[in-house]
Amino acid sequence: MRERSLGKTLKNLVLALLNATLILLAVCLWLGLRIASEVRAVSDNLHVNLTQLQPLQNGVTSVTSEIAGLRADLAAISERDVIAPETVAKLRDKAGQLDTRLTNLSQMADQLVADPGILAERAASAAITSLGNEAQELLGCRRSADAPSS
Q: What is the SS3 assignment for 103?
């Protein structure tokens, strides 16, 4: 068997280190490009998503006015003693809870319209999580969902 010199061994180690570094760099660039494309897709669709919130805001406003009308109807019904006072009280409580939920929904929609960055942050976070999971599966760090369990 032929003996290797220390110089040849060091040369091979440097080449292996360079090879591993280049592979790692390629994987990082691929992940970076995937994240950039996801963020670009989110930013392209951000305007569309924000315009879709406008009908939601209009719907919340109309439902809120309908709840106000419902409360007025309940007041009129309770004055005529058509329905038991306990039932009217329960209906008023339900209307109040619904009004509170609609107010919260309206505030969330207003926040998204005022600061679209919230929507972009959520989408970017989801994209990064998804890419992280893909990278783990690609590198064999995690078993895929369809892999047979042993």
A: helix
| Angle between helix 85-114 and 117-138 (nearest 10) | 80
Q: What 8-state DSSP symbol labels residue 146?
A: T
Instruction: At 68, list the tokens.
Output: 């106000």
User: Which candidate, 45, 50, 46, 34, places its Cα nearest to that of 127?
Assistant: 34
Torsion of CA 6, 9, 14, 18, to 10 degrees: 170
Sequential pLDDT tens for the chain (150 residues): 567 788 899 999 999 999 999 999 998 898 889 888 877 877 777 767 777 777 777 777 788 788 788 778 777 777 777 777 777 778 788 888 888 888 887 787 777 777 767 767 777 777 778 777 777 777 776 555 555 554
Q: Where in the chain are the domains? A: 6-136
- Quote the tokens at residue 42: 């989110």
Q: At a CB cut-off of 8 Å and minimum separation 6, what does 131 contact?
A: 31, 34, 35, 38
- Count other C-beta atoms under 10 Å from residue 1's C-beta: 3
What pTM was computed for the model?
0.42
